[in-house]
Specification:
Blueprint (H helix, E strand, L loop, with lengths): L3 E4 L2 E4 L6 H7 L23 E4 L3 E4 L10 E3 L3 H16 L15 H8 L23 E3 L9 H9 L5 E4 L6 E4 L15 H5 L5 E3 L3 H9 L4 E6 L20 H11 L3 E4 H22 L4 E2 L4 H10 L13 H17 L6 E7 L3 H5 L6 E2 L2 E2 L3 E4 H10 L21 H4 L6 H10 L11 E2 L6 E8 L2 E9 L1 H13 L6 E5 L18 H12 L13 H11 L6 H7 L13 E3 L13 E6 L2 H5 L2 H14 L6 E6 L11 E3 L2 E3 L4 H17 L2
Parallel strand pairs: 1-5, 10-11, 10-13, 12-20, 13-16, 19-20, 22-23
Antiparallel strand pairs: 1-2, 3-4, 3-5, 6-9, 7-8, 14-15, 17-18, 18-19, 21-23, 22-24, 24-25
């Protein structure tokens, strides 16, 4: 594309931009938008980005291709009035309790209302208030603040490939909601929180645990320790006016001590432990020929695998995430050292990730009924707490983490960006061959996937790094079908890895995320300590505290876990036959047919149809109650039918009907 277009009287060159909006912004004019996001498909619904194009009139700039010779005006009276009216219509039904909104300081709607001088709303509210959705461990949904931009819907569909949230109903009744009106915590949401990251208002936010942390800090019986994830140190400063990517490790540690935390540790130390354990597991699996190893540091990816890839669970690393590994280690070591009862040790994590809030509640990640981590707060929550304390972070002197769990290698800190886990493992296994940066090649036609080959001990290993769950699902299926051969696969749900986590300060353009990714790779905590193998405190833990080799004995007990297949939609069985309410009978045998995606594609709808026809024609509803369920946790064996306690996989409609007839005959004979 060559030539120029004229924007507000200025010639602007065309340089391959996909839409008029990009050209106008390049000219230094900030066009307002809600529904436009550079990493998502063009939606064109909010109509805020309208401009006046000579010969065409008012058009949405986000969906208009630029053409040489166009004459565009962005600030006519008609354009301004239309934008103001659009904003007023949005504000009419919006919950305008701005001072108490978590997104008050960076709400796009509030900023635009101020920018366009809207001091009153001419339209009346025409929508009844809707209840908050608070059942998720990681997120809170407030439908009263939704502006229907669709950013959350498109991200969940297009980047994560999940579709846990979507538009429902039509006209004035349209709303964004999880399937069947359920809570976001009851459907197949993986808690990645990217819906909250792209939301321009406070309609979806991370679930706060600030009050719980303050309560523990005020409890005189408790000792409260805190661990800080690598990506936090390159993002926290943004909340205090510092440039994106500026490393504030020492200032952050000083602030936490001033707030009353008894010990401050670096989760990057546990990342070094993860490398040692995962490397041992990788070599053991490789020697046994057990197939590829998927990393397990990302809890959003782990939950997705449990929900949708049950056949890959044996290939998921049994290593806990660094957060849980650190929590387990602290539960093991600190009560005796601090001379306190285990229940009086409170462990807090600061994470860039909302899925860690879900992870801490997994029953597998606890010991003696005490969770490895009591509370998880995000980078934003930590910034809020520091502000509440009156601490001016940018003016503080630096302080150091507590030893021994506060000393990490350069690549341990690198866990905070995509590729960091795989690179750390490879450097640990072959420190000489991987002493420089590993060269990753983008995989053609697979967005978000990079690949490299490493030679370790004379054997070549193919390693892939994946961003986004949709890309991870594609890779997993290709591995399963034999279409691609890989040995180690790192998966991160968030763009850029943890640096782009949903708990980080809001970043609408992606530019801050890029700065964080670069910074986390250069935030070397100790000169010359490149990888876990040369971290002296890691060696000390194995030699003196655990008394075993990596992956063995006490190390395996403290640092490894298990996974299980889980339902994608909880508590969702729909009765299809028999009366309900007061007339419902409890003596009927429940017959449940799974109609989840996997079973549906394998023919469960035909099974259900044949079953319902037979029950109606033969009056079998005296004996059976037919239900549709949305996950039987046996996705690879569908269609799946439950008759009472009996499970039938790869079910056939005729087979099920005949089985029901036989059971009726038996019941009748028994009187």
């Amino acid at each position: 594309m060559k030539g120029y277009i004229k924007v507000d009287g200025i010639d602007v060159p065309l340089e391959g931009e996909e839409n008029l909006l990009q050209v106008i912004r390049k000219a230094g004019i900030e066009i307002p938008t809600f529904c436009y996001h550079s990493e998502l498909s063009v939606y064109g619904a909010c109509r805020l980005c309208i401009v006046d194009i000579e010969g065409k009139g008012i058009q949405a700039s986000c969906s208009t291709p630029p053409r040489e010779g166009m004459v565009v005006r962005t600030n006519t009276a008609e354009v301004r009035e239309t934008r103001r009216m659009t904003l007023e219509l949005l504000l009419a039904n919006h919950d305008r309790e701005c001072p108490t909104c978590e997104r008050s300081s960076d709400c796009v709607l509030r900023d635009l209302a101020s920018r366009y001088g809207i001091d009153k709303v001419r339209f009346r509210k025409n929508r009844e208030p809707r209840p908050l959705d608070t059942l998720s461990d990681a997120l809170v949904r407030d439908p009263n603040k939704c502006v229907l931009c669709g950013d959350c819907v498109r991200y969940c569909h297009e980047i994560q490939g999940i579709g846990a949230i979507d538009f429902a109903f039509r006209g004035e009744h349209v709303q964004v909601t999880p399937a069947f009106g359920r809570s976001i915590g009851e459907v197949d949401c993986i808690n990645c929180g990217q819906c909250a990251a792209v939301c321009p208002t406070g309609a979806i936010i991370p679930k706060s645990e600030i009050n719980e942390v303050w309560n523990d800090l005020q409890d005189k019986k408790s000792k409260v320790v805190i661990q800080i994830a690598p990506a936090v140190r390159v993002a926290l400063g943004e909340m205090f006016g510092l440039p994106p990517g500026e490393v504030v490790t020492g200032k952050m540690v000083r602030a936490l001590r001033m707030m009353g935390f008894d010990r401050v540790y670096d989760t990057a130390f546990a990342a070094d432990l993860t490398v040692v354990e995962e490397a041992a597991e990788f070599l053991k699996r490789s020697k046994a020929g057990d197939g590829p190893l998927f990393t397990s540091c990302c809890p959003a990816w782990v939950k997705y695998a449990e929900q949708s890839l049950p056949r890959q669970l044996p290939n998921l690393s049994s290593c806990m995430s660094p957060q849980s590994m650190m929590g387990s280690l602290l539960r093991h070591a600190l009560p005796e050292e601090l001379s306190i009862e285990p229940e009086h040790l409170k462990i807090v994590s600061v994470m860039p990730c909302t899925a860690k809030k879900f992870e801490k509640k997994r029953p597998e990640l606890s010991r003696d009924r005490l969770p490895f981590v009591d509370h998880v707060i995000t980078t934003r929550e930590l910034g809020t707490m520091i502000r509440e304390s009156g601490i001016m972070l940018d003016r503080l002197d630096a302080d150091n983490f507590d030893l021994p769990f506060g000393f990490a290698s350069h690549l341990g800190v690198g866990f905070g960006s995509s590729g960091g886990v795989a690179e750390a493992v490879l450097n640990y296994l072959d420190p000489d061959g991987c002493s420089g940066r590993i060269h990753w090649e983008a995989v053609e036609d697979l967005s978000g996937v990079r690949e490299t080959t490493a030679v370790i001990g004379g054997k070549a290993f193919t390693v892939a790094v994946v961003q986004g769950i949709k890309s991870a699902a594609t890779i997993a299926k290709m591995v399963e079908s034999g279409e691609i051969s890989l040995d180690l696969i790192e998966v991160m749900a968030c763009p850029g890895g943890c640096a782009g986590g949903a708990g980080q300060p809001v970043d609408r353009t992606g530019e801050k995320r890029l700065a964080r990714v670069k910074a986390v790779r250069s935030a070397a905590p100790a000169e010359g300590v490149r990888h876990a193998g040369v971290n002296p405190f890691v060696r000390e833990v194995y030699a003196n505290m655990l008394g075993c080799d990596p992956g063995e004995g006490e190390a395996h007990r403290l640092f490894h876990t298990t996974y299980h297949s889980r339902k994608r939609i909880d508590g969702m069985d729909i009765r299809l036959t028999g009366p309900s309410g007061a007339e419902a009978r409890t003596d009927r045998i429940p017959v449940k047919v799974c109609v989840g995606t996997s079973c549906f594609l394998r023919g469960s709808q035909k099974v259900l149809s044949k079953l319902l026809h037979a029950v109606e024609e033969e009056k079998l509803d005296r004996f059976y109650e037919v239900q549709a369920t949305f996950c039987s946790e046996q996705c690879d064996k569908g269609p799946t039918v439950h008759i009472g306690d009996r499970v039938i996989n790869r079910a056939d409609g005729d087979q099920i009907v005949e089985l029901l007839r036989e059971m009726v005959a038996t019941l009748s004979a028994e009187g």
